[in-house]
């Protein structure tokens, strides 16, 4: 999933970007408040990690601005400010969660995954559909209880479709959420990944809605 990281400290920002990428996130990194505000208004990120002490525009101002503009993506605030009134103010302005510096990378990743799941109406840790079980934390997939090996981009695409089960996603929407800045996108990349997923997980798992995009049906409710 593609996230925005807004952090002005070059060492911390570089470390978080590299670490989150290793844990399966596509990360765009900005270093000041105006850039964070601009990107959050313009790009369809799954979530944002927002430092409060940003130059040019404080993180609180960025948060207030994008919420007023109707941007509803989950925002996790990253801060050294541990005073309770500051945290209350951030939550009232629209923050979804807080992580205090120094940051534990795995906790940060877990909190991001939880925020994204809840934003998509997925309360459970594991995503399920038609015998397929996807574990976002372990980055593993099984079909009818048997492990299935997926390439990195195949896993990312499947996760996107399962998070958005019941909703048709266009190729453009999928590309926007799969690829960070500087990552080259082949013109038929999504189609190729869908073909491989169908071959590995069954032809009926992902439906093509002609002229619109791709659909993965919701898991039927159990009686």
From TrEMBL:
Where is this protein found?
A: Cytoplasm
Residue numbers of 4-aspartylphosphate PTMs: 51
Q: Which UniProt keywords apply?
A: Cytoplasm, DNA-binding, Phosphoprotein, Transcription, Transcription regulation, Two-component regulatory system
- What is this protein identified as? Winged helix-turn-helix domain-containing protein
Q: Which PROSITE patterns match?
A: OMPR_PHOB, RESPONSE_REGULATORY
What are the record's GO terms for cellular component? cytosol; protein-DNA complex
Return the Gene3D superfamilies for the record.
3.40.50.2300, 6.10.250.690, Winged helix-like DNA-binding domain superfamily/Winged helix DNA-binding domain
In what residue span(s) does the OmpR/PhoB-type domain sit? Answer: 124-218
Tell me the DNA-binding residue spans: 124-218
For this UniProt entry, what is the primary localization, expressed as one broad class?
cytoplasm
CDD domains, sorted: REC_OmpR_PmrA-like, trans_reg_C
Name the GO terms of the biological process aspect: regulation of DNA-templated transcription
A single GO molecular-function term is: phosphorelay response regulator activity
Species source reads: Paucibacter sediminis
Q: Where is the Response regulatory domain?
A: 2-116
